[in-house]
Amino acid sequence: MTQDDEDGGSEGPEPIEIALPGEGPFQLPLCTDLAAVAIGETLAVLQFETMEGQRVDIPIPIGMLLEIKEAAEEALRAAMADRDGSMVQ
């Protein structure tokens, strides 16, 4: 949730730093909603909205969508198992 800062503006959460090869950290704004998905012959574009209302478009090759689905399912299983205190299957 955002809070007003001393200047009366909205102060959002700190950017997330992700360690990637190369110079400096990559900072990703916190996205709140998947606003749209556009799918072409070889490329999909996932459109998100940040907490500040900015649009973030992420182009992804169609073949990567299955890999993302599998990674998301694995992450969800692990998160649910951790929450429930059970083993990941």
Write a short abstract of this structure.
With 89 residues, this protein is an alpha+beta fold. It has one helix at 62-84; strands at 3-4, 10-11, 16-18, 26-28, 31-39, 43-50, 55-61. The strands form 3 sheets. Strands 5-6-7 form a 3-stranded antiparallel sheet. A two-stranded antiparallel ribbon has the order 1-2. It has a two-stranded antiparallel sheet with strand order 3-4.
Structure write-up:
The protein has one domain. The chain has 1 helix and 7 strands; from the N terminus they run E-E-E-E-E-E-E-H. It has 89 residues and is α+β, with helices and mostly antiparallel strands. It has one helix at 62-84; strands spanning 3-4, 10-11, 16-18, 26-28, 31-39, 43-50, 55-61. Strand 5 (31-39) and strand 6 form a beta hairpin. The model is unreliable at 1-5 (pLDDT under 50). Residues 1-23 are annotated as: Disordered.
Low-confidence stretches: 1-5
Structural class from helices and strands?
alpha+beta
* Anisotropy-based shape: globular
Tally of strands: 7
Taking the alpha carbons of the first and last residues, their distance comes to 34 Å
Strand content: 35-45%
DSSP helical segment count:
1
Main sheet overview: 3 strands, antiparallel
Helix-strand pattern: EEEEEEEH
Give the proportion of residues in helices.
25-40%
List keywords for this structure.
two-stranded antiparallel ribbon; 3-stranded antiparallel beta sheet; disordered N terminus; about 40% strand; about 90 residues
How does the SSE layout of this entry go?
Blueprint: E1 3-4, E2 10-11, E3 16-18, E4 26-28, E5 31-39, E6 43-50, E7 55-61, H1 62-84
Antiparallel strand pairs: 1-2, 3-4, 5-6, 6-7
